[in-house]
Amino acid sequence: MAADIFPRKKPANSSSSTVQQYHQQNLSNNNLIPAPNWQGLYPTIRERYIYCDEIDLAADTVLATLYAAKKYIVPHLARACVNFLETSLSAKNACVLLSQSCLFEEPDLTQRCWEVIDAQAELALKSEGFCDIDFQTLESILRRETLNAKEIVVFEAALNWAEVECQRQDLALSIENKRKVLGKALYLIRIPTMALDDFANGAAQSGVLTLNETNDIFLWYTAAKKPELQFVSKARKGLVPQRCHRFQSCAYRSNQWRYRGRCDSIQFAVDKRVFIAGFGLYGSSCGSAEYSAKIELKRQGVVLGQNLSKYFSDGSSSTFPVWFEYPVQIEPDTFYTASVILDGNELSYFGQEGMTEVQCGKVTVQFQCSSDSTNGTGVQGGQIPELIFYA
Predict the structure, then answer these.
(1) Is the CB of residue 276 less than 8 Å from the CB of residue 327?
(2) Cα separation of 171 and 178, whole Å?
(3) Is residue 228 helix, strand or coil?
(4) Could you give the 3-state DSSP secondary structure of residue 219?
(5) d(CA 343, CA 348)
(6) Residue 94: closest CA among 273, 301, 316, 307
(7) How far apart (Å, rounded) are the C-alpha atoms in residues 313 and 311?
(8) Is this model's pTM higher than 0.85 or not?
(9) pLDDT, tens digit (0-9, with 9 covering 90-100), for 209-257
Protein backbone atom coordinates (compact mmCIF):
# COMPACT_ATOMS: atom_id res chain seq x y z
CA MET A 1 0.00 0.00 0.00
CA ALA A 2 1.02 3.58 -0.51
CA ALA A 3 1.03 4.17 3.26
CA ASP A 4 3.60 1.40 3.68
CA ILE A 5 5.79 2.65 0.86
CA PHE A 6 5.72 6.34 1.74
CA PRO A 7 7.86 6.23 4.93
CA ARG A 8 10.59 4.32 3.10
CA LYS A 9 10.89 6.79 0.22
CA LYS A 10 14.25 8.48 0.15
CA PRO A 11 14.57 12.20 -0.49
CA ALA A 12 16.35 13.37 -3.61
CA ASN A 13 20.06 12.94 -3.02
CA SER A 14 21.71 14.86 -5.89
CA SER A 15 23.83 17.90 -4.99
CA SER A 16 21.97 19.83 -7.71
CA SER A 17 18.47 18.66 -6.72
CA THR A 18 15.66 21.12 -6.31
CA VAL A 19 15.03 20.33 -2.65
CA GLN A 20 18.71 20.61 -1.74
CA GLN A 21 18.91 23.99 -3.52
CA TYR A 22 15.83 25.08 -1.61
CA HIS A 23 17.32 23.97 1.71
CA GLN A 24 20.69 25.59 1.01
CA GLN A 25 19.08 28.89 -0.01
CA ASN A 26 16.92 28.92 3.08
CA LEU A 27 20.04 28.48 5.21
CA SER A 28 22.06 31.15 3.41
CA ASN A 29 19.37 33.77 2.66
CA ASN A 30 17.03 35.19 5.23
CA ASN A 31 14.88 36.61 2.46
CA LEU A 32 13.33 33.28 1.41
CA ILE A 33 10.60 31.23 3.03
CA PRO A 34 11.92 29.59 6.26
CA ALA A 35 12.75 25.91 6.07
CA PRO A 36 9.70 23.89 7.17
CA ASN A 37 9.38 21.90 10.38
CA TRP A 38 9.57 18.35 9.09
CA GLN A 39 8.84 16.80 12.49
CA GLY A 40 5.36 18.38 12.31
CA LEU A 41 4.76 18.45 8.57
CA TYR A 42 5.74 14.84 7.71
CA PRO A 43 3.02 13.09 9.78
CA THR A 44 0.45 15.59 8.51
CA ILE A 45 1.21 14.66 4.90
CA ARG A 46 1.36 10.97 5.74
CA GLU A 47 -1.88 10.87 7.72
CA ARG A 48 -4.01 13.24 5.65
CA TYR A 49 -2.79 12.59 2.13
CA ILE A 50 -1.49 9.01 2.15
CA TYR A 51 -4.04 7.45 4.49
CA CYS A 52 -7.09 9.65 3.87
CA ASP A 53 -6.38 11.01 0.37
CA GLU A 54 -7.08 14.46 1.84
CA ILE A 55 -5.23 17.58 0.74
CA ASP A 56 -5.62 20.51 3.11
CA LEU A 57 -3.53 23.45 1.90
CA ALA A 58 -3.17 26.93 3.35
CA ALA A 59 -1.30 30.04 2.22
CA ASP A 60 1.21 29.88 5.06
CA THR A 61 2.09 26.19 4.58
CA VAL A 62 1.71 25.51 0.86
CA LEU A 63 5.37 26.19 -0.01
CA ALA A 64 6.56 23.93 2.79
CA THR A 65 4.11 21.27 1.61
CA LEU A 66 5.40 21.61 -1.96
CA TYR A 67 8.93 21.19 -0.60
CA ALA A 68 7.84 18.00 1.19
CA ALA A 69 6.06 16.68 -1.89
CA LYS A 70 9.19 17.21 -3.98
CA LYS A 71 11.44 15.76 -1.30
CA TYR A 72 9.41 12.60 -0.84
CA ILE A 73 8.39 12.31 -4.50
CA VAL A 74 4.61 12.71 -4.19
CA PRO A 75 3.75 14.18 -7.62
CA HIS A 76 -0.03 14.46 -7.11
CA LEU A 77 0.47 16.46 -3.92
CA ALA A 78 3.05 18.66 -5.68
CA ARG A 79 0.57 19.34 -8.48
CA ALA A 80 -2.12 20.26 -5.96
CA CYS A 81 0.29 22.72 -4.32
CA VAL A 82 1.12 24.34 -7.66
CA ASN A 83 -2.59 24.61 -8.53
CA PHE A 84 -3.23 26.27 -5.16
CA LEU A 85 -0.43 28.76 -5.78
CA GLU A 86 -1.70 29.56 -9.28
CA THR A 87 -5.22 30.31 -8.06
CA SER A 88 -3.94 32.53 -5.22
CA LEU A 89 -1.48 34.38 -7.45
CA SER A 90 -1.67 38.17 -7.34
CA ALA A 91 0.57 41.20 -7.73
CA LYS A 92 1.26 41.07 -3.98
CA ASN A 93 2.92 37.64 -4.04
CA ALA A 94 3.94 37.18 -7.70
CA CYS A 95 7.59 38.16 -7.22
CA VAL A 96 8.12 35.83 -4.26
CA LEU A 97 6.33 32.98 -6.03
CA LEU A 98 8.46 33.62 -9.11
CA SER A 99 11.63 32.95 -7.14
CA GLN A 100 10.13 29.81 -5.58
CA SER A 101 8.70 28.49 -8.86
CA CYS A 102 12.14 28.74 -10.50
CA LEU A 103 13.69 27.00 -7.54
CA PHE A 104 11.14 24.17 -7.61
CA GLU A 105 11.42 23.90 -11.40
CA GLU A 106 7.72 24.55 -12.05
CA PRO A 107 7.67 26.24 -15.50
CA ASP A 108 3.88 26.63 -15.66
CA LEU A 109 3.82 28.50 -12.35
CA THR A 110 6.82 30.56 -13.47
CA GLN A 111 4.94 31.60 -16.62
CA ARG A 112 1.86 32.53 -14.59
CA CYS A 113 4.01 34.67 -12.29
CA TRP A 114 5.54 36.51 -15.25
CA GLU A 115 2.06 37.19 -16.69
CA VAL A 116 1.04 38.91 -13.45
CA ILE A 117 4.36 40.75 -13.02
CA ASP A 118 4.33 42.03 -16.62
CA ALA A 119 0.72 43.23 -16.61
CA GLN A 120 0.65 44.58 -13.04
CA ALA A 121 4.31 45.52 -12.84
CA GLU A 122 3.91 48.69 -10.79
CA LEU A 123 1.76 46.93 -8.18
CA ALA A 124 4.17 43.98 -8.06
CA LEU A 125 7.23 46.22 -7.71
CA LYS A 126 5.60 48.25 -4.94
CA SER A 127 4.53 45.17 -2.98
CA GLU A 128 6.26 44.12 0.24
CA GLY A 129 6.96 40.76 -1.36
CA PHE A 130 9.26 42.33 -3.94
CA CYS A 131 11.76 43.19 -1.19
CA ASP A 132 11.83 39.51 -0.12
CA ILE A 133 13.17 38.10 -3.38
CA ASP A 134 16.72 36.86 -3.87
CA PHE A 135 19.30 38.67 -5.97
CA GLN A 136 18.98 36.35 -8.98
CA THR A 137 15.22 36.96 -9.16
CA LEU A 138 15.83 40.70 -8.81
CA GLU A 139 18.14 40.62 -11.83
CA SER A 140 15.64 38.65 -13.91
CA ILE A 141 12.88 41.17 -13.16
CA LEU A 142 15.09 44.19 -13.87
CA ARG A 143 16.08 42.62 -17.22
CA ARG A 144 12.46 42.01 -18.20
CA GLU A 145 11.64 43.62 -21.54
CA THR A 146 7.88 43.40 -21.11
CA LEU A 147 7.52 45.08 -17.70
CA ASN A 148 4.50 47.34 -17.92
CA ALA A 149 5.90 50.04 -15.60
CA LYS A 150 7.43 53.50 -15.59
CA GLU A 151 11.19 53.28 -15.18
CA ILE A 152 11.13 55.55 -12.13
CA VAL A 153 8.96 52.92 -10.40
CA VAL A 154 11.52 50.24 -11.30
CA PHE A 155 14.30 52.45 -9.88
CA GLU A 156 12.46 53.14 -6.62
CA ALA A 157 11.60 49.44 -6.19
CA ALA A 158 15.26 48.48 -6.61
CA LEU A 159 16.26 50.99 -3.92
CA ASN A 160 13.60 49.59 -1.58
CA TRP A 161 14.95 46.08 -2.19
CA ALA A 162 18.51 47.32 -1.54
CA GLU A 163 17.47 48.83 1.80
CA VAL A 164 15.95 45.54 2.98
CA GLU A 165 18.97 43.63 1.65
CA CYS A 166 21.27 45.84 3.72
CA GLN A 167 19.27 44.87 6.79
CA ARG A 168 19.50 41.20 5.87
CA GLN A 169 23.28 41.50 5.56
CA ASP A 170 23.58 43.61 8.75
CA LEU A 171 24.96 46.53 6.80
CA ALA A 172 24.45 50.18 7.71
CA LEU A 173 21.65 51.84 5.71
CA SER A 174 23.92 54.07 3.69
CA ILE A 175 23.82 55.07 0.03
CA GLU A 176 27.16 53.33 -0.50
CA ASN A 177 25.87 50.03 0.89
CA LYS A 178 22.65 50.20 -1.13
CA ARG A 179 24.74 50.56 -4.26
CA LYS A 180 27.02 47.78 -3.06
CA VAL A 181 24.22 45.23 -2.62
CA LEU A 182 22.69 46.17 -5.96
CA GLY A 183 26.01 45.67 -7.72
CA LYS A 184 25.77 45.34 -11.48
CA ALA A 185 21.98 45.02 -11.23
CA LEU A 186 21.89 48.82 -10.96
CA TYR A 187 22.82 49.04 -14.65
CA LEU A 188 19.79 46.91 -15.59
CA ILE A 189 17.56 49.85 -14.63
CA ARG A 190 16.95 51.84 -17.79
CA ILE A 191 17.50 55.24 -16.19
CA PRO A 192 18.07 57.13 -19.49
CA THR A 193 14.55 56.14 -20.59
CA MET A 194 12.88 57.94 -17.68
CA ALA A 195 10.98 61.13 -18.27
CA LEU A 196 13.41 63.99 -17.70
CA ASP A 197 11.36 65.24 -14.75
CA ASP A 198 11.45 61.79 -13.13
CA PHE A 199 15.21 61.63 -13.53
CA ALA A 200 15.89 65.18 -12.34
CA ASN A 201 13.60 64.99 -9.31
CA GLY A 202 14.18 61.33 -8.48
CA ALA A 203 17.15 59.31 -9.65
CA ALA A 204 19.53 62.27 -9.99
CA GLN A 205 18.90 63.28 -6.38
CA SER A 206 18.90 59.80 -4.87
CA GLY A 207 22.65 59.79 -4.22
CA VAL A 208 22.97 56.29 -5.68
CA LEU A 209 24.46 57.55 -8.93
CA THR A 210 27.96 58.98 -9.09
CA LEU A 211 28.43 62.59 -10.15
CA ASN A 212 29.91 61.42 -13.47
CA GLU A 213 26.93 59.12 -14.11
CA THR A 214 24.46 61.89 -13.28
CA ASN A 215 26.26 64.35 -15.52
CA ASP A 216 26.51 61.87 -18.41
CA ILE A 217 22.80 61.03 -18.20
CA PHE A 218 21.85 64.72 -18.25
CA LEU A 219 24.04 65.11 -21.33
CA TRP A 220 22.42 62.04 -22.86
CA TYR A 221 19.04 63.77 -22.54
CA THR A 222 20.13 67.09 -24.02
CA ALA A 223 23.35 66.87 -26.03
CA ALA A 224 23.52 66.24 -29.76
CA LYS A 225 26.59 64.06 -29.23
CA LYS A 226 25.52 61.64 -26.54
CA PRO A 227 28.02 60.04 -24.13
CA GLU A 228 28.37 56.30 -23.77
CA LEU A 229 26.47 54.92 -20.79
CA GLN A 230 26.63 51.68 -18.82
CA PHE A 231 22.87 51.86 -18.39
CA VAL A 232 20.53 50.43 -21.02
CA SER A 233 19.21 53.41 -22.96
CA LYS A 234 16.48 51.64 -24.95
CA ALA A 235 12.99 51.79 -23.42
CA ARG A 236 11.27 48.55 -22.48
CA LYS A 237 8.69 47.31 -24.95
CA GLY A 238 6.10 46.73 -22.25
CA LEU A 239 2.87 44.98 -23.22
CA VAL A 240 0.65 45.75 -26.18
CA PRO A 241 -2.97 46.17 -25.01
CA GLN A 242 -5.66 44.20 -26.78
CA ARG A 243 -9.10 45.65 -27.53
CA CYS A 244 -12.30 43.64 -27.45
CA HIS A 245 -14.92 45.52 -29.50
CA ARG A 246 -18.44 44.27 -28.81
CA PHE A 247 -20.47 46.24 -31.40
CA GLN A 248 -20.66 45.68 -35.16
CA SER A 249 -21.67 49.28 -35.90
CA CYS A 250 -22.32 52.62 -34.25
CA ALA A 251 -24.75 55.47 -34.87
CA TYR A 252 -26.04 58.78 -33.55
CA ARG A 253 -29.44 60.46 -33.54
CA SER A 254 -30.63 63.80 -32.21
CA ASN A 255 -31.68 63.59 -28.55
CA GLN A 256 -30.89 59.86 -28.52
CA TRP A 257 -28.01 59.34 -26.10
CA ARG A 258 -27.90 61.50 -22.98
CA TYR A 259 -26.03 61.08 -19.70
CA ARG A 260 -27.09 63.43 -16.85
CA GLY A 261 -25.29 61.40 -14.17
CA ARG A 262 -26.79 58.06 -15.12
CA CYS A 263 -24.72 54.87 -15.29
CA ASP A 264 -23.86 52.86 -18.40
CA SER A 265 -22.95 49.32 -17.46
CA ILE A 266 -22.37 45.86 -18.96
CA GLN A 267 -21.37 42.47 -17.53
CA PHE A 268 -18.67 40.29 -19.08
CA ALA A 269 -16.75 37.05 -18.49
CA VAL A 270 -13.57 35.65 -20.04
CA ASP A 271 -12.29 32.12 -20.47
CA LYS A 272 -8.68 32.95 -19.54
CA ARG A 273 -7.07 35.16 -16.92
CA VAL A 274 -6.65 38.69 -18.28
CA PHE A 275 -5.89 42.12 -16.87
CA ILE A 276 -8.37 44.88 -17.65
CA ALA A 277 -6.46 48.12 -18.26
CA GLY A 278 -9.40 50.35 -19.18
CA PHE A 279 -12.39 50.88 -21.44
CA GLY A 280 -12.82 52.34 -24.91
CA LEU A 281 -15.64 54.88 -24.91
CA TYR A 282 -17.58 56.79 -27.55
CA GLY A 283 -17.46 60.57 -27.71
CA SER A 284 -19.49 63.47 -29.02
CA SER A 285 -21.37 63.25 -32.31
CA CYS A 286 -21.56 67.08 -32.51
CA GLY A 287 -17.93 68.01 -32.99
CA SER A 288 -14.98 67.86 -30.62
CA ALA A 289 -15.74 67.77 -26.89
CA GLU A 290 -14.22 66.86 -23.53
CA TYR A 291 -15.77 64.31 -21.20
CA SER A 292 -15.28 63.51 -17.54
CA ALA A 293 -15.53 59.76 -16.98
CA LYS A 294 -15.82 57.78 -13.77
CA ILE A 295 -15.01 54.17 -14.67
CA GLU A 296 -15.49 51.22 -12.35
CA LEU A 297 -14.95 47.48 -12.36
CA LYS A 298 -16.80 45.26 -9.89
CA ARG A 299 -17.16 41.59 -9.05
CA GLN A 300 -20.26 40.55 -7.11
CA GLY A 301 -20.73 44.11 -5.93
CA VAL A 302 -17.14 44.54 -4.73
CA VAL A 303 -15.20 47.36 -6.43
CA LEU A 304 -11.91 46.04 -7.85
CA GLY A 305 -10.82 49.15 -9.70
CA GLN A 306 -12.04 52.65 -10.38
CA ASN A 307 -10.74 55.92 -11.74
CA LEU A 308 -11.95 59.43 -12.51
CA SER A 309 -10.35 61.00 -15.56
CA LYS A 310 -11.05 63.12 -18.62
CA TYR A 311 -10.77 62.34 -22.31
CA PHE A 312 -11.09 64.39 -25.46
CA SER A 313 -13.19 63.21 -28.40
CA ASP A 314 -12.65 64.67 -31.85
CA GLY A 315 -16.17 64.33 -33.18
CA SER A 316 -15.48 61.06 -34.98
CA SER A 317 -17.06 57.66 -34.31
CA SER A 318 -13.75 56.34 -32.98
CA THR A 319 -13.44 54.96 -29.46
CA PHE A 320 -11.30 56.79 -26.92
CA PRO A 321 -9.37 54.96 -24.16
CA VAL A 322 -9.91 55.67 -20.48
CA TRP A 323 -7.49 53.84 -18.16
CA PHE A 324 -7.51 52.47 -14.65
CA GLU A 325 -4.58 53.53 -12.48
CA TYR A 326 -3.44 49.89 -12.45
CA PRO A 327 -4.65 46.95 -14.57
CA VAL A 328 -7.18 44.78 -12.73
CA GLN A 329 -6.73 41.00 -12.66
CA ILE A 330 -9.77 39.15 -14.05
CA GLU A 331 -10.26 35.43 -13.38
CA PRO A 332 -11.87 33.12 -15.96
CA ASP A 333 -15.49 31.95 -15.94
CA THR A 334 -16.73 34.68 -13.60
CA PHE A 335 -18.90 37.64 -14.55
CA TYR A 336 -17.61 41.15 -13.81
CA THR A 337 -19.42 44.47 -14.14
CA ALA A 338 -17.92 47.32 -16.18
CA SER A 339 -19.48 50.71 -15.51
CA VAL A 340 -19.02 54.33 -16.53
CA ILE A 341 -20.70 57.59 -15.58
CA LEU A 342 -20.04 60.31 -18.15
CA ASP A 343 -20.33 64.07 -17.90
CA GLY A 344 -20.03 66.03 -21.13
CA ASN A 345 -21.75 66.63 -24.45
CA GLU A 346 -24.96 64.65 -24.18
CA LEU A 347 -25.27 63.86 -27.86
CA SER A 348 -22.79 61.08 -28.51
CA TYR A 349 -22.24 58.05 -30.66
CA PHE A 350 -23.54 54.71 -29.37
CA GLY A 351 -23.01 51.11 -30.36
CA GLN A 352 -25.44 48.90 -32.28
CA GLU A 353 -25.67 45.21 -33.25
CA GLY A 354 -24.00 44.07 -30.05
CA MET A 355 -22.59 40.55 -29.78
CA THR A 356 -23.05 38.22 -26.81
CA GLU A 357 -19.69 36.54 -27.49
CA VAL A 358 -16.50 37.94 -29.01
CA GLN A 359 -13.28 36.10 -29.86
CA CYS A 360 -10.32 38.42 -29.22
CA GLY A 361 -7.04 36.68 -29.98
CA LYS A 362 -6.91 33.62 -27.71
CA VAL A 363 -9.49 35.04 -25.31
CA THR A 364 -13.25 34.53 -25.59
CA VAL A 365 -15.37 37.26 -23.97
CA GLN A 366 -19.07 36.83 -23.15
CA PHE A 367 -21.40 39.76 -22.48
CA GLN A 368 -24.70 40.04 -20.66
CA CYS A 369 -26.86 42.93 -19.45
CA SER A 370 -26.19 44.51 -16.07
CA SER A 371 -28.80 45.58 -13.53
CA ASP A 372 -26.48 48.51 -12.67
CA SER A 373 -27.14 50.06 -16.07
CA THR A 374 -29.57 52.98 -15.70
CA ASN A 375 -28.85 54.77 -18.97
CA GLY A 376 -29.87 52.22 -21.58
CA THR A 377 -26.58 50.38 -22.20
CA GLY A 378 -26.99 46.65 -22.71
CA VAL A 379 -25.71 43.82 -24.88
CA GLN A 380 -27.41 45.06 -28.05
CA GLY A 381 -26.41 48.73 -27.85
CA GLY A 382 -25.09 51.66 -25.85
CA GLN A 383 -21.78 52.76 -24.36
CA ILE A 384 -18.60 50.89 -23.28
CA PRO A 385 -17.92 49.54 -26.77
CA GLU A 386 -14.45 48.20 -25.85
CA LEU A 387 -12.64 46.38 -23.10
CA ILE A 388 -8.91 47.13 -23.14
CA PHE A 389 -6.84 44.35 -21.59
CA TYR A 390 -3.52 42.53 -21.37
CA ALA A 391 -3.43 38.76 -21.83
Answers:
(1) yes
(2) 9
(3) coil
(4) helix
(5) 11
(6) 273
(7) 7
(8) no
(9) 999 999 999 999 999 999 999 999 999 999 999 999 999 999 887 656 7
